[in-house]
Amino acid sequence: MTPTTSTHPCAPRLSVAHQVLCCSVRDVTELREHSDVVTKLLAELERSNTDLAQFDDVASHDSCNRSPRSADVTT
Question: Can you give the pTM of this predicted structure?
Fold first, then answer.
């Protein structure tokens, strides 16, 4: 293939060395959607863990509001 010459200013210009431009395109839409789902699930998990920690604190005390059960255990 021989280079063609054009007088148009936007026309590609080929030299004898033939420069090559390679590019790659990747659709990351699905990856971003999955990332959003993971972010939401992590936030929900953190809220759930906070709720469970609060429940554990309340449940570990007896009705007289004594120290937590774990402190009552002797080794």
Answer: 0.47
